[in-house]
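Below is how a single chain appears once it has passed through the pipeline. First comes the sequence as given, then the structure the pipeline wrote out for it. We keep one example in the README because the format questions we get most often are answered faster by looking than by reading.
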Amino acid sequence: MPSLPNLPSDHLIRYLNTFPKMKQKLPSNVTTTQACWGHERDCKAEARFQTPQCPGDHTGWVQSKQAQVDTFYYQADFGYIQQQLAELTPQCLPKYLTDSSLECTRYLRFCRGRNLLFDFRDLVDREERIRYHMDVLKPGQLLGHCELNRTRLTGELEHTGSALQSWGPELRNFDVLPEPVMESNHCDMVVDTPTFILKIDATYNMYHHFCDFFNLYASLFVNQSHPAAFNTDVQILIWETYPYDSPFRDTFRAFSQRPIWTLSDVEGKKVCFRNVVMPLLPRMIFGLFYNTPLIQGCSNSGLFRAFSEFILHRLQILFEPPKPKIRITYLSRRTKYRQVLNEQELLEQLEQNDDYIVQRVSYERLSFVDQLKITRNTDILIGMHGAGLTHLLFLPNWACIFELYNCEDPNCYKDLARLRGVHYVTWQQRDLVYPQDEGHHPEGGAHAKFTNYRFDVPEFMRLVDEAAKEVRAHSEFPYHQQSKKIGPELQKIEPHHEL
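Resulting structure:
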């Protein structure tokens, strides 16, 4: 029997309720609750990991307040996982335990298989590096010994417009091997370790790479049919021949203890995988994170909060108790565009307020783990529109993200803040922000993202004060009633449930 996975306590209880036999590993004096994630069929609403918040009136999208909450839940929370599980359909059925198998959700967004053969011999002859390619495999280069429903598989190929929308570009090449894969002489290499094959969005842009990490995390739940679902003894195979390099690569340590593979590690071979998962993808139509269509008036996805806690826990990011003063982190850009021309003036004004502890950081100069240590212990995160604001995923639940200026892209980080459940503030007074020029897009034309800005100091301070009020008003912030007194004992403010 596998050992208990390394999970936060209120995640672990839900894992144990999914796999009750694992409770035998608990000490005899430990009791458990009936908590569930929310994707389980018998999970009651009050036992879910979290319920979305929809404080405003429902709009014409839906006919009732409950429909508004439910819509958000199935768009962006564990309800989305429930839908994926309901859609799982066999594409290739085994007759015997040693046969191959393949099952997928609708449009081949998520697939998993057993005893499958991938023929990578042709890759050694490819002159160009492979990334975002839809022709990695040719017909007959993905094989299994099972009863293939060709009509059903072909019917799911609608979302193959790009490599990152579905697994259609790969699975359209699936064919049947007349003999069991593992008993044949076809395998040059057998991978016994459960393997996740990833088609990733980007490596150096935090927003886009975390589309990959988040969907990998969500896929753990879709694949959660065995107690080893959260184990790290798994192999990650990235579907490209470029060497994997990323400032955020430490995040993979939350998922796997093994070195990352790319197609360069398997090219020239026929590779047989005993267990392989093709996770949810970063640019799916109506997908999670990048293309999530959010209903108006709702926020606080439990799935996004669970992801945040999972990553912070697995990477062992220290949590410090909040202080009576608001901790402000200002992200200073070292890029050509979107610099704040009067940054020093703004910071000097902030530092004059005795209610604030202010630090200016340039995250590109720090390791990602060190970045997370700062973010997790920040109450207000301030920065210009840019991928660094993706750090809002790892702010405390009571925190506020202040997107200093959205550069005419109003929904990107506002929606991400809604998903994570942190408050969001941005600049509203267009006459009080002063661009250096009209901006010059590399492909021609004016563009707000390609210039630098100066900001009105009083309006900046007003917005920071607004953000601070939201932080103090949050029920989990220990000084939420404007109190500046230090209590007799600072408690660790983290989600806690009795096991």
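The chain is about 25% helix and 15% strand.

See the next section for the split statistics.
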